[in-house]
Amino acid sequence: MADFVIPAPAVPTIPVEGGGAFPVRRVYCIGRNYAAHAVEMGHDPDREPPFFFQKNPNNLDASGRFPYPPHTKDVHHEVELLVALKSGGTNIKLEDALSHVYGYGVCLDMTRRDLQGEAKKMGRPWEIGKAFELSGPVGPVQPVAKVGHPDKGRIAVTVNGQPRQEGDLNQMIWKVPEMISYLSEYFELQAGDVIMAGTPSGVGAVERGDVMDCVIDGVGTLRVTVV
């Protein structure tokens, strides 16, 4: 074992429904994976090659509280399906991709939209808008043995009881097996990797005190309060 010169950071984890914890290695997020959301963000919804950005593993948080972040006046909710991998590899065949999935969950990709927009205009990376502290509220991981491999079902979020986002998992442009196979061509996927599978249309701003209620039929629910 290495003789660390400072205390080793804790391993980020997500609780698992029924007990235990899922250790997180990397977090891959796909952009504009629902046609209607691509349109609302000003892009053509045609099936162009997918693109990904990353959050940090310790951005994921299951506390149910989202601290409003600094240096922004426009924080948006983006409800997404979370895909948790139990194994990986490179150049994974499409037909084998789902065998690498441990389970699924409900998550939010919270976004400092104003800072992301500035980064886009300047051709810079998005991390300042996407990968800030506690920017990935998550619910418990549901094992495949319990929920199967959901490829359809309502995905939605309300804010203070008012509908905001709503779509269906079958509207994803790139399906879960395709995302896994594509990513494995560019990265060596491993156990503990997480994929956030994109968001439907209806993204919008939240303020301190707002309560976001998220649901993915057949997967679960997630309630998060902005503090």
TrEMBL record:
Keyword Metal-binding tagged: yes
Occurrences of domain Fumarylacetoacetase-like C-terminal (ranges): 27-227
A Pfam short name: FAA_hydrolase
Keywords attached to this entry: Hydrolase, Metal-binding
Domain of life per record: Bacteria
GO molecular function: hydrolase activity
Annotated InterPro entries: Fumarylacetoacetase-like_C, Fumarylacetoacetase_C_sf
Name of the protein described by the UniProt record: FAA hydrolase family protein
